Amino acid sequence: MLIFLFCLLFLCVPLILFGSKTAEKATPALPPDAVKETMYQTLEAYLPETAVDYCTDLWRLYGFTLKIKGDRKTKLGDFRVNRTTGEVTITVNGSLNKQAFLVTYLHEVAHLLAWRQHRGSIKPHGPEWQLHFQLLMAPLLTAEVFSPVVLLPLKKYMQRPSASTASCPALWIALRSLDTPVLDSSGRGLLLLAQVPDGATFRFCQTEYLKVEKKRTRALCQNLSNGRRYLISTAAQVERVA
């Protein structure tokens, strides 16, 4: 892991050595050991045990502010830079299970590294971000960190990572399978649409549908109220209908 951290640091060295005064100001001082211990304890509650040291070291090395947020429906995490002070803030939803939290955490740190190297001259999820994400994830792609059900689709996803893990149904379904079961209005566990057999009825967004057939990452479903057919992601959470 130290080799990978060195490689990541090397990618940022040109900016640190040759950047403008503004760039230098945007690099916060490393926090003291006491603060590191506090961060370790915080991350310990949200990450797989074998990834806590690595993620704490990333936080210490790059000096960003980490905020744990509630369950946000529109995002799993984000990365922001205060254009005046240069302070970097990364947020991650604390409602995520530990393996999903880890993937999101590294996703956002990759944004930080891409920004430090290229500033605003690149696309948010372009090849520069993809490279940093791959480098960050590489030492963790092992069975010691990720469960077997997640590791295989994660390795495939990391070959060309996209803007959201939810856009990769195989990975998203694998990650969601580790969640604590969420109950529907009848007290039964919610399902992923991928788990609903063809020909079965389910409820999604307060509307009942018939699952007609699966089409790659989405399913063709018929709205039972108006008879129209729609494509719905197989990673969507749905309610059982008796």
TrEMBL record:
One protein family per Pfam: SprT-like
Source superkingdom: Bacteria
InterPro entries membership: SprT-like_domain
UniProt record, GO biological process: response to stress
Domain SprT-like span(s) in chain numbering: 72-136
Protein name: SprT-like domain-containing protein
Organism (species): Cesiribacter andamanensis AMV16
Native organism taxonomy: Bacteria, Pseudomonadati, Bacteroidota, Cytophagia, Cytophagales
